[in-house]
Amino acid sequence: MKLSPVKQFVMIALLLSLSIAVTIRFPGVMSYIFADDDYTRQRHGFIPDFAHLAGDILITALVALLMFTLNFFILKPLEKHTKINVVRIVAAIFLTIASVYILNDLFHSVLDLRHNGHREGGRPEEFDFINFFVSGLVIASVLFVRLIFLKQNMELENESLRREALQSQFESLKNQLSPHFLFNSLTALQILIREEPDKAQEYVNSLSKALRYTLKSNEKQLVRLDEEMEFMDSYLFLIRIRYGDNLAIRTKLDDRLLDHLLPPLTIQTLVENAIKHNEISRRKPLIIEIITSEDEGLAVSNDIQQKLTGAEGTGIGLTNLSRQFSLLVDKDISIRREENKFIVEVPLIKPGNGSTDR
């Protein structure tokens, strides 16, 4: 479970307070451990006995922790909209030093009284050094925590803005597919009503299913392969009405990959791209193959049959599709020519690695 920023600050303050106390009292610890006799321990200059050593460490840690608390309210390290000016820093330094002096003197006086009197040596010489050392480390640590917090917030805000920009770009790319598909379908329907009115009703039913899927896909970023192929049944019926026996679609899909994901209308875009750029006639029927690959990809291929008109497309379809995969799953599509075949392969996404909801 992720801790809140305030709880994180408390944990950091506790660890730093203990670290400051141990660092300051480290020479006394070494003196106590390695002293040769009781006389040396009593006159070494840091601590006279173990009780005072433990008390000094606890007092320094407690004072440091209290100073972290004080500066939490003065410097406000977790508030990104609070500006740190010279006046605030000077106030923090003054209050911290004064508080450290007062608290250290008070706590040590209580400790000395508890142990029946004052120590014979050590504290007066080191008292000023310890106070300034604790004050400086606390203020520097709080300012450093503030810098880290501001940096993390800036990174999170930048990531949020980047995601919003990518989402907006993805929606823009996805919305470019539907008008193109609708225009081609309505054009074909107009021809069919005029030439074969009996088939027009069946065509309208399939067009309705296809458009329903297209509209529904706007609510998703990724769909299952079997859902996409169910849509393709309706779409391919529309295509066959337009081209008859001059167009053949062959599919070979691994059943284990039917639950894998891909952006909506991916296969339709690839089939439409093959139809748009190749001649389809009795003289040159076009065969389009839709197959899954061993590396969990989906490939759509066709023979290259250059149109007699030599018209060149804009390439927007494949470009948009490539951007969709890049934005959603940080993967790219493969476009290649092998002998006389044009092949586009897209990666299929394992369930759990992408979301089907917006």
Order of helices and strands: HHHHHHHHEHEEHEEHEE
Overall form: rod-shaped
Percent of residues in helices: 55-70%
- Total strand segments: 7
Largest sheet: 5 strands, mixed
Distance between the termini: 25 Å
Range of strand content = 5-15%
- Give start-end ranges of low-pLDDT stretches: 43-47
Lateral arrangement of strands in the main beta sheet = 2-4-5-7-6
Number of helices: 11
Radius of gyration: 37 Å
Structural class of the secondary structure composition? alpha+beta
Report the mean per-residue pLDDT as an integer.
79
Write up what this structure looks like.
The protein has 358 residues and is an alpha+beta fold. 63% of the residues lie in helices and 10% in strands. It contains 11 helices and 7 strands. β6 (334-338) and β7 form a beta hairpin. Residues 43-47 have low confidence and may be disordered.
